[in-house]
Amino acid sequence: MKKRFILFSLLLMCSIGICLAQSENEKVFEKKEAALTQKLQQSFEENNYQEVEKNSKALIALFNEQDKETQKRHSWVLQSYYYNLACAQSMLKKKEEALKSFRLAWQNGCIDYQHILRDTDLDNIRKEKEFEEILAQIKKEGDYLYILQKSPRYAKNEQTDTLPRFTYAAPNDSNLVKVRQYFQLDSVAGNGDEISQIKNILTFIHNKIKHDGQHGNPQQMNAIALAEACKDGSRGLNCRGLATVLNECYLAMGFKSRFITCMPKKYISDCHVINAVYSSTLNKWLWIDPTNNAWVTDENGTLLSIQEVRERLRDGRPLKLNEEANWNNREKTTKEEYLDNYMAKNLYYVNCALRYEFGTEDKKYSPDNYIALMPEGYYNEMEKGSYIVYDDAWFWQAPY
């Protein structure tokens, strides 16, 4: 069973992290933490729960030795330390200690409700009254599908006359012509129909540039500069960088496309950025995710939009993830973890840019070049300065 610290690392891979200057103390802490985490991983793999307990306690002690600034910037790690400790103590049948550690994991931010439900290492304390009480509190914050299903609906017929319009650069733009040539997109797309070309370009970018959420993206945020930075294979891009590259590839081939930031109700550790590309064949925007080489269909195999996926999650209708979906060609992406949990968290509201062109985010546009679609009656301060709309029909308007 993979433990919390592993899952949290995967979440960070999708975040829009900001690189800050590190102190020498912080660098030493991270080096020691990495060594202890490796030992912890090995002890989990060997099912040596005495060593798991020992290494988890060592990580907690290491954290407590740090200065306040380092602790503040790494405060999220405590939840994983205490969660792993709770798992080890549960397996060692130290019930009182395990319950105490589990409570501390929750108090320090551990709310991965679906993972907790599945984690067999906690079975020895699962029927304890204290465990049930803590889990009930976690459900309120961490059962993301439940939270999404309880969210308000969008407003209809909202007054939108004063809102700006979405714009998309034409494929004959000189910089987009360079993108088309750089990635050899005519060959990549192939001679098939529109849908096959959209999928071919997605898979090409997914295979060409690995997903890497452990580092910030390069300073230049256009498709060619981003690809060049990753050319030697020593690094990749986070989800926003990948979606930026793919977006410009679609624009270069004449597809109207946006990169969409999918946001949780309450920002905890991360969000996720994917693409919406407009299909003239289906007359709608399609869910396209370069991080996971993913698209989503209904029970009949019809490709779905981000909006359609969100509403099907809300009302429990069937969703299917493509068989090819994977992370870095190393791990299969499953519908249960990806859609029912991770994206259920990140579809509470969405935001995107209003202008799409080569180097959209190189332009350093002010916040009012961005617009967020929120459920009626909801507002998030993270979107301060951006346009806010509650009418999903306006937000997902056709580009033609």
Task: Please tell me about this protein's structure.
The protein has 400 residues and is of the alpha+beta class. The protein has 2 domains: 4-142, Serine Threonine Protein Phosphatase 5, Tetratricopeptide repeat, CATH 1.25.40; 160-395, no CATH class. Helix content is 46%, strand content 11%. The protein has 17 helices and 12 strands. The protein has helices at 4-12, 24-45, 49-64, 68-73, 77-91, 95-107, 113-118, 129-142, 144-149, 174-182, 185-189, 194-208, 223-229, 239-252, 306-315, 335-345, 392-395, and strands spanning 167-168, 257-263, 272-279, 284-288, 296-297, 320-321, 326-327, 331-332, 349-353, 355-356, 370-373, 387-389. The strands form 4 sheets. The protein has a 6-stranded mixed beta sheet. A two-stranded parallel ribbon has the order 1-10. A hairpin with an 8-residue loop joins strand 2 (257-263) and strand 3. The longest helix has 22 residues, at 24-45. It is globular and about 65 Å long. Residues 1-20 have low confidence and may be disordered.
Set out the fold topology.
Elements lengths: L3 H9 L11 H22 L3 H16 L3 H6 L3 H15 L3 H13 L5 H6 L10 H14 L1 H6 L17 E2 L5 H9 L2 H5 L4 H15 L14 H7 L9 H14 L4 E7 L8 E8 L4 E5 L7 E2 L8 H10 L4 E2 L4 E2 L3 E2 L2 H11 L3 E5 L1 E2 L13 E4 L13 E3 L2 H4 L5
Sum this structure up briefly.
The chain has 400 residues and is an alpha+beta fold. The chain is 46% helix and 11% strand.
Q: How would you characterize the largest beta sheet?
A: 6 strands, mixed
Number of helices: 17
Beta percentage is 5-15%
N-to-C terminal Cα separation, in Å?
49 Å
pLDDT under 50 segments (min length 5)?
Answer: 1-20
Radius of gyration: 22 Å
Compressed to H and E, one letter per element, the order equals HHHHHHHHHEHHHHHEEEEHEEEHEEEEH
What's the pLDDT, averaged over the residues? 92
- Structural class call reads alpha+beta
